[in-house]
Amino acid sequence: MGTKESPSGATSEVGETEDQFQAPRSSFWATFSDHGVELRGAEPVPVEKRTDTRYVNVLTVFATSMTSLLPIGIGSATTLGFGISLRDAALMIVFLQFLFAAPAAYIITIAPLTGMRQMIQSRYCFGKYCNVLTSIIVTLTVGGFAVTGSINGAQCLAAVRPGTLPVEGAIAIIMVLSLAIGFAGYRGLHLFTRWAWIPTLIAIIILVGAAGDQLRHQTPLPRPPSAQEYLGIVAFAAGNMVTWSNVAGDYACYMPPSAPRPRLALYCLFGVALPFSLLMVLGAAIGGAVFATPAWAAAYEGGGIGAVIGTILVARLGDFGRFVLVVLGLSVLGTCGRDVYSVSFNLTAVLPVLRRVPRIVLSVVATAVIVAVAIPASRSFVTSVVAFLSIIGYYAGASVTCFLTEYLWFRKGDPSSLDPKIWNDGRALPTGLSALASVLIAWAFIIPSMQADWYTGPIAEKTGDLGFEFAVVVAFLAYVPVRSLEIKIRGRL
User: Fold this and answer.
1) Which of 79, 60, 117 is nearest to 386 (CA)?
2) Alpha-helix residue ranges (DSSP H) falling in 352-466
3) Which residue, of 1, 216, 399, 491, has the fewest CB within 10 Å?
4) Class of domain 43-376
5) pLDDT digit string (tens) for 393-427?
């Protein structure tokens, strides 16, 4: 039953003579390595180091991080931000979350075959230099989920004893604890998520029981929802799920090439989509009932959804409710720790010079930035999360489409075509101009088709938000001919 992975420690990277960070065995950093802290950076994992056969880790790392306040807070935006009914929100959430999680479920199966993290695999489509743009967007995306999760958790902790702990202080507490998880790396993250879901699930069941009879009282809609609002949910859901395609491989790159691909895909699909969709529905129910219950409405105005959850638990369960509230507030540690871990790798793809910096140092930097962004974002949570998820959904739709088209169409789904020896060779890799051009062409259609609080394009004014749909279709239609022309000119992939 024991895990055989050995991801800690720096070894010679594939295709280069020196590792990302080589330290003498007697050095300060080797002490961390000896205690299981992962030092390896973005470089591909050699076959001999891909020994993690606990495949269920894929399920637990996603399911634990999704079984938290994060999807509850995001789900509340469907009824509070888009103004649709709970029934319609529930139907759309479940269907769209599973649909948009499917690309990540497929992409994660490639990582054991290549030993590469997702941002490195992306170089075989976007090239070494154009991939910097994708790396920036993905880093902001993953960091944005950490911001969202930390705000949700902080609101709950602040609601335990209102007026005692400010949301800003609670955000700092959550992110420091999350840093410890992300700091440890692959092994520590998987160990934590293997068990952390149990108290969270119990706390969520208690929350549902405490709120159950009040969730029936949904706020009447002032008017029937329009097509624009329904289409807005599509872009919103895409922002939740499609973006995981850009980081999924990070959590399976230490698994052997013989890893069972169908099992990994199902673990990823159900680990991501099942808890996220169910808890989003719970969040939608709470959001829809907020203004139908005076005590909830007052709590929401004062402290957001976290304060509403605090009111539900404390009013019904007293001090025990406060204990449950603490558990729920800390449930985001798996989410935020996972995001700190991914951001620490993506930073090296954004700025290659950071490959000389130990990953654990980058984890500290990532945590500090997330705290700095989360504090001001906490003051307008629903507006911030709707705008954030919709916009990243547009870009993810275009970039993931380009990557899958490259891998399945031009490389025929052959992992050996992703030669690890050239992972950091800008001349040997594709130029990335085809992918960059396709994304830019897609954005020419996305901008007039997108709908947000701060901007609505002329197409969206008439039809609703079609930004994600245009992102996928246009990126595919542009990438095939442009990439074909590039291959013809270069004479190789």
Assistant:
1) 79
2) 359-377, 381-405, 433-449, 458-463
3) 1
4) mainly alpha
5) 888 899 999 999 999 999 999 999 999 999 999 99
- DSSP assignment letter at 456: B
- Rounded CA separation 60/74 (Å): 21
| Amino acid identity, position 34 | D
Distance in Å from the first CA to the final CA of the chain: 42
Q: Which of 131, 159, 37, 58 is nearest to 101 (CA)?
A: 58
Cβ distance 155 to 305 under 8 Å?
yes
Question: Of 227, 280, 379, which Cα lies nearest the Cα of 78?
Answer: 280
**Domain-wise residue ranges, the chain:** 43-376
Tell me the average pLDDT across 4-14.
Answer: 40
Helix (H) or strand (E) holding 112: helix 111-114
Which of 183, 187, 185, 190 lies closest to 364 in space, CA to CA?
183
CA–CA distance, 209 with 204 (Å, rounded to integer): 9
Burial of 272-303, coded b for 16+ CB within 10 Å and e otherwise, reads bbbbbbbbbbbbbbbbbbbbebeebbebbeeb
**CA distance linking residue 329 with residue 157, whole number of Å:** 5
Q: What is residue 191's DSSP assignment?
A: H
Q: Cα–Cα distance between 62 and 267 in angstroms, integer?
A: 9
